[in-house]
């Protein structure tokens, strides 16, 4: 078999990568070893940014239809015991409008994404197919894949191969790429349960995240179902009696009528030493693992989108080598920053547990939290989300803006590069024409709306397919060819 791109794994990362490639008319083969979606754990809350990614590719409507709806603002309550009043409550905004945070169980999201892949004419999804081996060649990769149901082994020659095969990535092991961990991985257990115990707070119907000592419990937004993440000591047995473990940790006789499941984790904070070897790439959890406290798929989905349009640009002939090289140089630092932020937030949580166990007064605990990152996932997604009011800058997300009629500016962007032109005299038109002459697809978008000018402080900006600013200027550049060489990756 041959394919332009072989995607290994149809979790959220692999599915979004396949959809991004198809969005740019590039066909791919996706192999997924499972024949059914995972039960849990996994994606539950999708941030507004992740929803924006899905909206551009189509499936955000599925999240709306099959999820549990827009996520309400999620207060974080810090308690010493479940019975006690919170020491501190920190609110978390949930975003508003089209790209508000949403909730959808992982299994449902995976099922719906796989339906999209199956229905897409450019995507060939093979379920029950397991990637087992890899040979890297100068002009591509040859993978060995086992069709488990037919018991047949296939050899797949691909121009590019992407490992989206999760935390235990076989692709990563074949490449012999080590994971670089921050600290030692610790054992961790997640207990999924139903409880209407009134001590589990549901403020005004809005779900909350409760930190009691070292345990973080998160309401899953569908009434009375919760997940509690418990650190487990090396010698401690796991899973024999999750209710007893939960009660012991929460310091109260919690009423737990139903356990939905128990999962064990090594909560490593780890990033792959490299994201690429020749034609083979790593993306999503195959490239970085964060403690469940990170609890967001944004970093993984951003990998998929970043790599997807760059591979498509290379395959469609306008992307140079610098574009593919920039996948690692852009996405790996982002994972490293996320790792630091999650580590900092986890340390706050541990310190809170230690201080409460030592009997620190409530005022002391609240004071310590106020000085630290008292949101458990504070700071994650470094630099990726579009922040209202953010200015136009190279590498940054295109600022959110609405046209005077209310339409989102980004809905006017082209599929490939877009030259946003606020000069008022269509000064960008010859630039876009010159790009097209060179085979670089640029949509020229003149904008006169005052509502956009408020946020877009540069009259000319070239926006990438992933809504990041590739280049911007106050005037028509003297050497447009040099700009095009840079943004298409002809030069680095
Ligand atoms: C406890 C917990 C809670 C979380 N909660 C949230 C949340 O609320 N919100 C959120 O956004 N994120 C959450 N996350 C993070 C989220 O689950 C991950 O970011 C996301 O699953 C990463 O997707 P992925 O596609 O990279 O990997 P995975 O989801 O692990 O998918 C990998 C896929 O590859 C397949 N595969 C593996 N090996 C092979 C092979 N050899 N051949 C073929 N296929 C293979 C697997 O079957 C799987 O389908 C949570 C994570 C944890 C651990």
TrEMBL record:
Keyword field: FAD, Flavoprotein
Name recorded for this polypeptide: FAD-dependent oxidoreductase
UniProt KW Flavoprotein keyword: yes
Taxonomy, superkingdom: Bacteria
Keyword Methyltransferase among UniProt keywords: no
Gene3D superfamilies the UniProt entry points to: 3.40.30.120, D-Amino Acid Oxidase, subunit A, domain 2 (3.30.9.10), FAD/NAD(P)-binding domain (3.50.50.60)
Species of the source: Dactylosporangium matsuzakiense
Any one GO molecular function term: oxidoreductase activity, acting on paired donors, with incorporation or reduction of molecular oxygen, NAD(P)H as one donor, and incorporation of one atom of oxygen
Requisite cofactors: FAD
A Pfam match: FAD_binding_3
InterPro entries assigned to the protein according to its UniProt record, in alphabetical order: FAD-bd, FAD/NAD-bd_sf, RIFMO-like
FAD-binding domain boundaries: 3-335
């Amino acid at each position: 078999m041959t394919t332009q791109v072989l995607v290994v794994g149809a979790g959220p990362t692999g599915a979004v990568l396949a959809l991004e490639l198809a969005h740019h008319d590039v066909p791919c083969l996706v192999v997924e070893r499972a024949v059914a979606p995972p039960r849990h754990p996994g994606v539950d809350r999708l941030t507004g940014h992740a929803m924006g990614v899905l909206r551009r590719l189509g499936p955000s409507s599925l999240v709306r239809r099959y999820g549990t709806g827009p996520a309400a603002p999620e207060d974080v309550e810090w308690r010493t015991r479940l019975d006690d009043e919170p020491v501190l409550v920190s609110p978390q905004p949930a975003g508003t409008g089209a790209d508000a945070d949403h909730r959808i169980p992982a299994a449902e999201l995976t099922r719906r994404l796989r339906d999209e892949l199956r229905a897409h004419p450019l995507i060939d999804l093979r379920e029950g197919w397991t990637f087992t081996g890899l040979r890297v060649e100068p002009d591509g990769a040859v993978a060995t894949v086992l069709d488990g149901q037919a018991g047949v082994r296939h050899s797949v020659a691909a121009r590019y191969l992407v490992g989206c095969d999760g935390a235990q990535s076989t692709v990563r092991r074949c490449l012999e790429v080590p994971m670089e961990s921050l600290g030692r991985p610790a054992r961790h257990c997640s207990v999924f349960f139903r409880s209407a115990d009134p001590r589990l707070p549901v403020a005004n119907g809005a779900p909350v995240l409760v930190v009691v000592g070292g345990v973080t419990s998160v309401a899953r937004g569908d009434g009375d179902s919760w997940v509690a993440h418990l650190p487990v000591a090396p010698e401690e047995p796991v899973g024999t009696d999750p209710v007893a473990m939960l009660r012991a940790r929460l310091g109260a006789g919690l009423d737990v009528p139903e356990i939905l499941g128990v999962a064990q984790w090594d909560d490593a904070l780890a990033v792959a030493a490299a994201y690429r070897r020749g034609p083979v790439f790593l993306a999503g959890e195959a490239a970085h693992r964060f403690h469940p406290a990170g609890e967001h798929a944004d970093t993984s989905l951003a990998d998929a989108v970043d790599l997807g349009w760059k591979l498509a640009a290379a395959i469609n002939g306008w992307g140079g080598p610098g574009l593919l090289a920039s996948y690692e140089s852009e996405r790996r630092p982002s994972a490293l920053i996320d790792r630091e932020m999650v580590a900092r937030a986890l340390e706050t949580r541990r310190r809170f547990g230690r201080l409460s166990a030592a009997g620190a007064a409530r005022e002391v605990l609240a004071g310590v939290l106020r000085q630290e990152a008292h949101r458990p996932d504070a700071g994650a997604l470094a630099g990726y989300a579009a922040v209202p009011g953010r200015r136009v800058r190279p590498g940054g997300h295109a600022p959110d803006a609405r046209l005077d009629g209310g339409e989102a500016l980004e809905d006017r962007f082209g599929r490939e590069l877009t030259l946003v032109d606020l000069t008022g005299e269509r000064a960008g038109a010859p630039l876009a024409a010159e790009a097209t002459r060179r085979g670089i697809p640029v949509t020229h978008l003149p904008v006169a709306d005052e509502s956009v000018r408020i946020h877009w402080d540069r009259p000319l900006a070239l926006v990438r397919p992933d809504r990041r600013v590739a280049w911007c200027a106050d005037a028509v550049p003297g050497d447009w060819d040099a700009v095009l060489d840079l943004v298409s990756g002809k030069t680095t």
